[in-house]
Write a structure and sequence with these properties.
With 349 residues, this protein is mainly beta. The chain is built from two helices and 29 strands.
């Protein structure tokens, strides 16, 4: 059975106290979360010899998270990923969102779910329930959206995340989790030697501003074929227009659109033996390899986060779905319940 504990984690500029909650399971695996952004600040798992180390990027204190962070560990919403030109139309009405990334809308806007206070309740041993009310027209999105995210750490070394949302007006929702993983333990080097498998035949090609072209492309014969585990660094610098646009892997892979939970990805780090498996009900998974990390951030334990020092596996709907009628819908209507599940499982080989 996991145990729960809390500690103060500093105050925001306007004096609001932030609390860090830690869940620890019977194997000594632990997960720490703050009520600001629902951010996972630490995730400690054993390597193959049992050495417990932190496998996510982040900061030692709140100050780092309050400055511009590349969404380390955060809950991302109301719409994770990009919406073209920050515009979409519902029932004939056009909504305008912040164009906070190259003229496009990214990760919910200027003050997305990664920068708000979540109410956290302990929902039994090993389980935290985070809730947030996103008001009608917050960041330009219609509808009062009641969001609930639960983090559960099991004794099988799984982090289970459940997302639920309801609205009082038709809106769009695409929630995801933005941990940057580095399975070397305490971030010893970049992630290029990690071996990744993505259980997907197709990916979502993008334009120069990382907005989907609308097609779904076969991975066969491209550097996007991860159906067999391959070192991340092997092909990321290949001459390929898609890799050039994104500066490496920063794309959404297509999973089955069924609502059932499916195995989406496995990442293995040969030196430590750590393995991360991802399971999700979502139709896509964004594999982002820290191409925009450039050494300007110093993180936990004084480690400088250089190019490709972390990777994200963001389970979600495809980018720009509100404007791409052929993609699975991200619309949520009053009376409906948005419900998705993602499991990150930690093991060793
Ligand atoms: C996106 C990247 C973006 C990063 C922000 C990722 O989810 O795919 O394009 O730069 O978030 O840190």
């Amino acid at each position: 059975m996991a145990t729960n504990s809390t500690r103060p984690f500093g105050k925001t500029a306007d004096g609001q106290p932030v609390t860090e909650y830690t869940l620890t399971n019977k194997n000594g695996v632990s997960l720490s979360v703050i009520n600001y952004g629902g951010i996972i600040t630490r995730l400690v798992t054993p390597d193959r010899s049992g050495v417990q180390e932190d496998i996510v990027l982040g900061y030692d204190s709140l100050a780092g998270y309050l400055k511009t962070t590349p969404y380390f560990g955060a809950i991302v919403g109301r719409y994770g990923n990009r919406i073209a030109n920050g515009k979409f139309t519902l029932d004939g009405q056009t909504y305008s969102l912040a164009q906070n990334n190259n003229g496009q809308h990214l990760h919910g806007g200027v003050k997305g779910f990664d920068k708000v206070f979540w109410n956290i309740q302990e929902a039994g041993r090993g389980k935290l329930k985070l809730t947030y009310l996103s008001k009608d027209m917050e960041e330009g999105y219609p509808g009062n959206l009641n969001v609930e995210v639960t983090y559960e750490l099991t004794d099988d070394n799984e982090l289970k995340i459940a997302y639920t949302a309801t609205t009082d007006k038709k809106t769009v929702v695409n929630l995801t989790h933005h941990s940057y993983f580095n399975l070397t333990g305490n971030v010893k080097r970049d992630i290029l030697d990690h071996e990744a498998a993505l259980y997907s035949d197709k990916f979502v090609p993008v334009t120069k501003v990382l907005i989907p072209t609308g097609e779904l492309k076969d991975v066969a014969g491209t550097p996007f074929d991860f159906r067999k585990a391959t070192a991340i660094g092997l092909r990321t610098n290949d001459k390929d227009q898609q890799l050039e646009f994104a500066g490496g892997y920063d794309h959404c892979w297509v999973l089955s659109s069924s609502d059932s939970i499916k195995h989406a990805a496995t990442v293995y780090e040969p030196a430590s033996g750590r393995v991360l498996d991802v399971y999700t009900t979502e139709p896509g998974i964004q594999f982002y390899c820290g191409n925009f990390l450039d050494g300007s951030i110093t993180g936990k334990r004084g480690v400088v986060y250089k190019h490709r020092f972390g990777f994200c596996l963001e389970t979600e709907h495809f980018p720009d779905s509100p404007n791409q009628k052929s993609f699975p819908s991200t619309e949520l209507k009053p009376g409906e319940v948005y419900k998705t599940y993602t499991t990150y499982k930690f093991s060793v080989r």
